[in-house]
Structure formats: C-alpha cells, structure tokens
Amino acid sequence: MNYLLFVVYLLVFCWLLLQIPFIKKSGIDSKVILGLFLFKIIAGIAIGWLSVHFYGAGNDYWDVNREAWNEYRLMVTDPGKYLTNLFTSGYPEGYSGLFSSYNSYWNDLRGNIIIKLVSVFDIFSRGDYYINSLFFNFFVFFGHVLLYRLFIKLYPGNKMLVMTGCFLLPSTLYFSSGIHKDGMVFLMLSLFIYILFQCLRQNKVTVKRLLFAGISLLLLFGLRNFIFLALVPATIAWIVTENTKAPALRIFTMVYLLTGILFFTAGLVFEKRNPPEVVTQKQAEYLRLPYSATQIYLNPLQPNFSSFAVNAPQALNHSFLRPYLWELPSKALLPLNIELAAYQVLVLLFLLFRKKETGITDRPFILFALFFTSTLFLLIGYIVPNLGSIVRYRSLYLPLLITPLLCNINWDRLRVKN
Fold first, then answer.
1. For the chain, which end, N or C, has fewer CB atoms within 10 Å of the first or last residue's CB respectively?
2. 57-to-2, 118, 127, 303 alpha-carbon distances in Å
3. Contact criterion met (CB below 8 Å) for 333 and 323
4. 216: pLDDT strictly greater than 90
5. Which residues pair with 386 in a beta bridge?
6. Residue 56: its pLDDT value, please?
7. How far apart are alpha carbons 52 and 183 in whole angstroms?
C-alpha cells in the first residue's frame, strides 16, 4: 500500500510543479524540471536507504521520522500540547543556553522544528519514511529553483552551467535531501538570499518580501543560529555596496574588518556575551562527542585573537581542502573526496582560463557569497573534528561558490587549447 501511495503522491507533486507560476517563470523546460525533481527524490530515497543499511535504525534521519510519528500521535491525543510544546522549555534554566549543544531549549529547537514539520506530513504518509521524504523534498526543491533564478540573471546564456551548480552538485543534492535540518536550512537560506537580491536589484521592498525574508531568518535562527549571525555582516556589506558608489571590495573589506574587531572586543563590554568564548566552547563540545571513523585532529582553541589567528590555516585547510583525494578513513568518503578534487580542478581552470569580463570584485552578490561562505567554512574548520561532518555542513553553501566558478571559466578557450 505504501508503494502505491508513494507513486500517487509523486505524480501529484510532479503535476503541481508544472502548475506553479514561480517554477514556470524559471525558464526551465517542463521535462527538465521534472527530471531535476526526480533526481532530488532519488537522492532522498538514497540517503534514507543508505543511512539505515550502514548505520541501522539509530541514525539522525530515521530518528527524526520516528520522533515525528510520536508528535503526530500527540496531535491526535492532545492537540493543545501539540500546538504549544515547540515553544516550551522543560529545562530548569528555561530559555538560556542560546549557543549550548546540551540541555538547552535552543539546541532541541533545531531538531524539533523539523520533527513538527514531518509530523504534519504523517497525516498523509502514516509515518512512512520514504513518503515523508517525498513531501520534504518537494519543498526543499524550491531552494534549488530559487538559486537558479538568481544565478541565471547574473549569468544569462549559461543555462546548463547554472543548472549544474544549483541543482546537481553531488554533496549538496545528497545531504539536503535527507529528512533533517540541512534541507530546511538550504531552503531558508536560498529564500532569504533570493528575496534580498530581488529587493536590491529592483530597488523595491514589499510587504510580501519582508514577510518571507522575516520567516526565513526566523527559521534560520532556530535551526542554526550561527548562519543567521554570519548573514549579518555579509548582508550589511551587500546593501551598503548596492546603495553607494564606493568600490564593492573596499566596502566588504571594511565591514568585515569592523566585524572582526567587534568579535574580539565585545567580551570587554559584555562579559556574558564573549563571541570567542562561544566558538571555543562549541569546539570543546564537538571534541567531547564519541570518536568517529573520520575523526581528525584539531588544535585546541583559546578565546583570544592570537589563538584564532594561529589556528586559522588549519581551519581553512580542513574546510576547503579536506578530505584529500587519498584520505580514506572510511570508504564512504571516496565519492566526496573525488567531488572535492573536481572542485579544486575547477579553481585551477578558473585561474588559467577565466573570462576577461568576470568582474568578480565589482559584483556585490558574488562578494556576498565569497565572504559569507568563507566565514562559515572558517567556523566549521575551527570547531568540527570530523571529516564526515565537515563534508555535510559545507555542502549547503557550495552552490554559492561553484556556480560562479563554473560560469566564469572560458570553456570555449579551454576547448581550443585541447
């Protein structure tokens, strides 16, 4: 029965996609859209199947699905509690511990948001993981479409390259397709960036855009508050650049220098709000987790500028360059190693065969993408001692880097050279 339901829902969603004006206006042929959507659904099935067969029923994706079924039963038996428990803290400290990873309302909220969403899907799926994955990825698919519609305006005439960067990057496609917060983070981040791009491009702010931008930021704060914080300087620099005639790179550099100064000096004014201490504590919490097959060594951080400066090369190496092609603590990393090596080849091709008219430093959005993703990559490198987790976390931001890279390589010149 579940197989039949899955097919029926899949057909309904395929039909719906072709009726939605936002999808129609993307300029992508209907058959291609359906093909890309099916890739997304297959990725969702794959991550669900592989996770349960390699790690058993006790893994993040299936745990979310199981907890969602418990929430669904609560919906049926105690609707009042179901509607309020998302906003209730059962901890003695109440709503403190905003950045804590243990015994914190805010830490639990990250998973509870997704659990609550999937519990609504359970009305139609009766708890079936793969049907829930279908529902989940129907919505997350819009994140890919949002990025495509943004990048195709920046790089018209590069349809296939933009499509590849926005829909088909393997790790992005894979990790954003599991029933977990990654997919929702990807969708909300894409939504916020697209709305901001439209507002600045058209010089027009509407109530509808403000509403959707507010929802996306609120959910990002609940799901991963450090992404919300990383968006602040990047967004300010982008807005200032678009509204002044000053060189874009100069503005971004100044905003980030000021942000760095505030980061390391805020604790002098607000003793209980010391940003370096928060990052240091986060690293310590990751290091206390059970040892993983893909564990790597991290230099212990201290909450001061010199420690962060000394550890920056290691952090950047971990986020941008690892796992190395030959680094295989687990065979499951091999496809991801190859993918990262391919991106590194793309960087080399860009340096050797880039288009003359790239104008990267003159495009505020591209600088936004570079500064924002580099900030997150640096943070990931500082705190995460696990290659598997590093690959998963950075996958959500790869389209912002790889799509411009693909579109700024002079492929015609490269073919002539060959």
1. C
2. 19, 17, 14, 39
3. yes
4. yes
5. 295
6. 62
7. 18
